[in-house]
Amino acid sequence: MDKLTTLLEKIDGFVWGLPLIILIITTGIILTIRLRGIQVRHLGKALKYMVKNEEDGEGEVTSFGALCTALSATIGTGNIVGVATAIGILAGGPGALFWMWIAAFFGMATKYAEGFLAVKYRKIDENGNVLGGPFYYIENGMGVKWKWLAKMFAFFGACVGLFGIGTFTQVNGIATAVQSLFDPNNSNTVMIFGSEYSIAIVITAFVLTLCVGLVVIGGIKRIAKVSEFVVPFMAIVYIVSAVVLIIANIELLPGAFKSIVYGAFGIRPIAGGTLASIAIAMQKGVARGIFSNEAGLGSAPIASAAAKTKDTVRQGLVTMTGTFIDTIIVCTMTGFSIIMMGSWANENLEGVLVTTDAFQKGLYFISNNAAAAILMLCLVFFAFTTILGWNYYGEKCLEYLSNGNKKLVKVYKWLYIFAVFIGPYMTVSAVWTIADIFNGLMAIPNIIALLALSGVVAKETKEYFAKSNK
């Protein structure tokens, strides 16, 4: 088993090594240039379109609903746990947050192209069901001879949903957070599968499975409705909590900025020599930024394709705001909290415990339990909506692979619910690594398509704004 784990970690390191990271960032740079800095020039318009739906658009859900579905899959444990992992003292340090911003900036152009292409090349069947995503803009945009590439993307996407990011890792995150609050000493246990588990975990598994089942069986419309309510509400709760923390400790903010800049450019080496510290901060920040906002991975356009719209540019702009909200806002709030409170430098803490420590120190005017409860609540709902979003992604990938076989998709849905049920009892280290590998492999076909179709995106976007300015 140890040999298998080691092998998986080596494969993961190869897949998510510098070549893929450089490819994704380079794609964002190319699109930024070809689209003339669209993420800067039209961000205001994008934010306006985000909350203003079209009246006569074609699709299954509103543009805002499609955005919330996409955000439900991206705003998850990565925003709370992933940021802490990236900027920890044994990882990239505070400088990683700077490179996370860089990844997000160029990633916004990538996300715009994904949303644009998702609507341009989607199909709507006779029942009004939308068929869209990277597999369709690969097949219809690049040509039928590239269908094998579309199938490759769909296979990897279905695997990512079922084997880790959509299920086991999120469920374990929820179960761990609930147990740490209600039964931190594992005092009340029951025997399941030959091992002892906290009653808090058992109850969490049952309630979570029931909630997920009720939502995912209803399909995209129900997922979108739940996401439209939960995602904005919990994002606001989390952001407000982090802003209160920052304001309450405002005297520490200049020092945090200095640590970020110094760490990003190796002015104060964190891990060995200057060049080594820059490389580590860059690699951790860019990798976690991409992992958090999923720019370039090809997941968000699956949701974007379902939007009620006829306007490719408009939906591209709305999709682009997802990266802005996920990384520039939510991840930044987490990063500032951890850096200002110095929690990143504690070698005895890792993962969610780093962020919990920051909240407990920063929100000093409330009890430690209350601070931990706020973070637990946000983590639970963020992870829950990620489970919903990835179920939809996985189903759409399998639907494309099986040529619309509804029975197979239904089996996938029930397997997904079962995976949620057993998730709290699983050892997730190997599962997370497998999911990470599939996630990276899923990005490759999508990036190829974005580069191949970047001319189409640039040309039609230029024409669109030329007409609207007349």
Explained architecture:
This protein is mainly alpha-helical and 470 residues long. The protein has a single domain (7-464), classed as Up-down Bundle (Amino acid/polyamine transporter I), CATH 1.20.1740. 74% of the residues lie in helices and 3% in strands. It has helices at 2-15, 18-34, 38-41, 43-50, 63-74, 77-87, 95-120, 134-142, 147-163, 168-182, 199-216, 219-248, 253-264, 274-293, 300-304, 312-340, 352-362, 368-401, 406-422, 429-452, 454-468, and strands at residues 123-124, 130-131, 189-192, 195-198. The strands form 2 sheets. A two-stranded antiparallel ribbon has the order 1-2. A two-stranded antiparallel ribbon has the order 3-4. α2 (18-34) crosses α7 (95-120) and α11 (199-216) crosses α18 (368-401). It is globular, with a radius of gyration of 21 Å. The termini are far apart.
Q: TL;DR?
A:
The protein has 470 residues and is mainly alpha-helical.
> Mind telling me the CATH class?
Mainly Alpha
The amount of helix comes to over 70%
User: In terms of per-residue confidence, which ranges show pLDDT below 50 for 5 or more consecutive residues?
Assistant: 269-273
CATH topology (level 3) name = Amino acid/polyamine transporter I
Give the number of DSSP strands.
4
Strand order of the largest sheet: 1-2
- H/E element order: HHHHHHHEEHHHEEHHHHHHHHHHH
- Morphology: globular
Strand content: under 5%
Radius of gyration: 21 Å
